[in-house]
Amino acid sequence: MRxxxxxxxxxxxxxxxxxxxxxxxxxxxxxxxKLSKKQYDEWNLTESAGxxxxxxxxxxxxxxxxxxxxxxxxxxxxxxxxxxxxxxPLHQDTFKDDSGxxxxxxxxxxxxxxxxxxxxxxxLIKDYKAGDIFEFDDPLAIHGSANLSSIPKVSLQIVEYx
Length: 162
Fold this sequence. Notes:
By secondary structure, the protein is mainly beta. It has one domain (about 1-160): Jelly Rolls. The chain contains two helices and ten strands; from the N terminus they run βααβββββββββ. Strands 1-8-5-10-3-2 form a six-stranded antiparallel β-sheet. Strands 4-9-6-7 form a four-stranded antiparallel β-sheet, with no helix packed on it. The model has no long low-confidence stretch (mean pLDDT about 80).
């Protein structure tokens, strides 16, 4: 996982406020994607599971994410909120395009809080700042997240098809 820089001024505080004060939903499509369904079944995840996903349709007037780094513009993105005690078990992402031309980014929307856990492969990512942009060196790498703190954990997930 590579750190591409910090773009704190790019983070929109009003979006964080919306996420912190509203409920999300389990990522649509998991029931149709064979690998995702297998993972969800293994974890026994339901709509009441701890992973809450936010999509652009939840944000009035926000239809595009203009990343502050060079990109193709062909992006899928969503916010993830993990409430205290919630987890999103180790998993491998699935993509709509099997060509292998995928770029995967993780952007924390808050400064690191002890108990906010993000694992990538065998690495615990911590001491990050809001607006740090991390790129997976392998978009298919196993990763997961948990929240052992008393504060919700929010991040922005980006998939770029290049």
